[in-house]
Amino acid sequence: MKITLFTSNQSRHNYFINKLSEISTELFVVQENDTRFPGLVSGHYPASEIYEEYFKNVLAAESKVFGDNFIASKNLNLISLLEGDINKCSLKFLSSFLKSDIYIVSGSSYIKGELADFLIEKKALSIHMGLAPYYRGTDCNFWALHDGRPDCVGATIYMISKGLDTGQILYHAISEIKDSPYVYTMSCVKSAFDSIVERIKNNSIYKNTILEQDRKKEIRYSKKTDFDEKAIKEFYKKKIDLNQKEVDTTMYKNPFVLKK
Is 125's pLDDT higher than 80? Predict the structure, then answer.
């Protein structure tokens, strides 16, 4: 089985690359690169003391959940790009990476144009770190905790579409690991990765009925600019009880649960 993954370069993404390599005959990875020191070095997020402090907690949680991962795959074909360069790549440029059985988008820039059309036709999977349709946009699990909705922390695996986070939902991935807000959200990333690997391996990934997103259920649509220093300071002031709301299982579509 050949798999193509569009992703980023953080340790968690390298973990996913290594896991997918175990179940594929050949793995093709288009990896966009951002700083490994968010908050300290300007990249996807600005550099400042507030951002640096926040992302120290995020990186510590990533290390706890995933370890320190480096790509260690023998069946790997890799294209390395700067973040945002994916939409400058023609189908011809990517042609040798576009002959796979399964396509996955996780952590890359928002894909547009002819590549998006190709991936839609190929029924590509996409991972949204947030529980759609309740939380859409960026930094969704941060905002779910900010809003006192830990029951809305998770990941959504859906079919890629032209709209942002509007695709048909295959299932949700959630976690029972709630050591801290940071570990909780990061373990939901692991739940998404592990579930995709497991469900590709057992051939069940496309066998579930799909669910159209009901936009009337949307709680928040967040933009990148919403996640600013003011929002982080407000987050620090909140007393977040990760078990404060009883879980309503009807919110989740065919969920994969990462156990403690």
Answer: yes
- Local structure of residue 31 (DSSP, 8 states): E
Which pTM was predicted? 0.95
Going by pLDDT thresholds of 50, 70 and 90, the confidence category of residue 162 is confident
Strands of the sheet with 169-175, listed across from one edge = 76-82, 26-33, 2-7, 102-106, 125-128, 155-159, 169-175, 256-258
Q: Please tell me the predicted confidence (pLDDT) of residue 245.
A: 67
CA distances from 64 to 88, 108, 190, 235 (A): 35, 23, 11, 22
What's the total number of domains in the chain?
Answer: 1
The pLDDT tens digits of the residues spanning 53-94 come to: 999 999 999 999 999 889 988 899 999 999 999 999 999 999
Helix, strand, coil distribution of the chain in percent, nearest 5: 35, 20, 40
And the tokens for 167? 């695709």
> What is the CATH number for 44?
3.40.50.170
Tokens of 81: 């790009």
- Three-state helix/strand/coil letters over 69-113: CCCCCCCEEEEEEECCHHHHCCCCCCHHHCCCCEEEEEECCCCCH
Look up the domain containing 227 and give its range: 2-258
Q: Please name the helix (run of DSSP H) or strand (run of DSSP E) that holds residue 60, with its range, or none.
A: helix 49-66
Rounded-to-integer distance, Cα 130 and Cα 146, Å:
13
- As a whole number, the mean pLDDT across the chain is 94
